[in-house]
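Fold it.
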Amino acid sequence: MIKSIMLILLLGFLFSKMFEKIKLPGLLGMILVGILIGPYGLNYLDSGFLKISSEIRTLALIIILLRAGLGLDKEILKKVGKTAIKMSMIPCLCEGFLITFTASKMLNLPIIEAGMLGFIIAAVSPAVVVPSMLELKESGLGMDKGIPIIILAGSSIDDVFAITLFTAFLGMANNINKSVGVQIAHIPVEIIGGIILGLLVGIILHKVFQSLKLKELEQLAILFGTALIVKLIGDKIGVAGLLSIMTMGFVLLQRSCNIAVKLEKKLNKMWFFAQIFLFVLIGAAVNTQVALDAGALGLIVIVVGLIGRTIGVIISLIGSDLNFKEKLFCAIAYSPKATVQAAIGGVPLVAGISSGSVILAIAVLAILFTAPLGLIGIKTFAPRLLKKEEDIIEKTV
């Protein structure tokens, strides 16, 4: 296991720097390392380590969502709130149902199984999108209209819709008694419940930090440990635990601003190591042979889905003050897939669904196709399509 950790840290860091040297996102280098040394490549990673890889990815995801919550500006969030809510569901629904229709016609999948595929693919990857948006936020790109905040908030809820609807289609295939209507009605319960849980825990954390004289590292340990508890509670009671974690960080920022700023700086240092494990292990979960089996038809289904997502983004941004270039960037930034596809792409196959192997193949292909292109798109087009806050201030002076 020590050998696996060494390979992930050293090679992940090295490839990240190499990709940055050639003006590509470092995350791509890390994903490539995972593919190379993972079980479907050279198979250098310990099998015991791979068994806990999903838990390690979750830990890294918690760190980045805490960072996101601790960095959410209340005034900007108020300004973009309605748009972010629309972005959290409309693009996902457009993509999911368009893939469902396309897969049923082109791949001759039963409509229920096509629905499973649709909402596996429809989930945007917070593991890829959130770090990219935090970088834009720190650089000031798009912050005049809160674009990184819109995408941060929207992407954190997008997965709730996708996973719930996937579960509904899986339930229909397995004749589970719970009706589709009940499962869909549970979506707002998950979202609202997640926000309430995060609010309550955030308030408790604020009181703890105010009443106890703790060192910064002690506060960080409490914050991170509490985030883990929140995730477990969310899973147990059926609310969006990851959304709770972001909300918890946001509440802490509003009530204990000085503490929150210091904790965010500490989390930035943790993220340096966590991102390497996250993206290398995402790469390790990718079976390239399975992706190749999906073939051209699988790729067409994914592209059609992305067209549906783009249409959904444009619909969501109607009535906002974003111009055409900014709307185009939002569509690009909302395209990467990775986390959910790696996590649940194989579930239909394990569940004995007849087209499970096809669904898995297209899910893997979606990661290989959209994660690199999405990352390159964000890095390439952000400076071209978005404005910096200071640039706007200079023009108005």
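The domain at 54-267+293-390 is CATH 1.20.1530.20 (Na+/H+ antiporter like fold).
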